What does this fold into?
Amino acid sequence: MDAGLTFTAELWRWTARKESADSGSWCFVTLPVELADDVRERAGEPRGFGSVRVRARVGETEWDTSVFPDAASGSFVLPVKKAVRTAAGVTEGDELTVTLTVRDGT
It folds into this structure.
């Protein structure tokens, strides 16, 4: 694993489907565009849908997940699961400080 990338971004809720309006719906943060090339470079060969495997940390909570390319921003989005939001005491619209470490393919 390499050194982590730390950034702060607003937590937003995915609302493309009607059922996403409930509290269990998907929430994300968008990585700053200036970090996108760094993530791509560290990731090497792209995986399905261009996703990149990462280890994420918000506060004291860490988890393994992937970031996914976002055509609208030209960057990546990171899903932030409900357990992390609860542990961090954050809701949609709050600023989250995240540290990402790009994981290898193993």
User: Anything to note?
Assistant: The beta strands are 5-10, 12-13, 27-30, 52-58, 61-70, 75-79, 95-102.
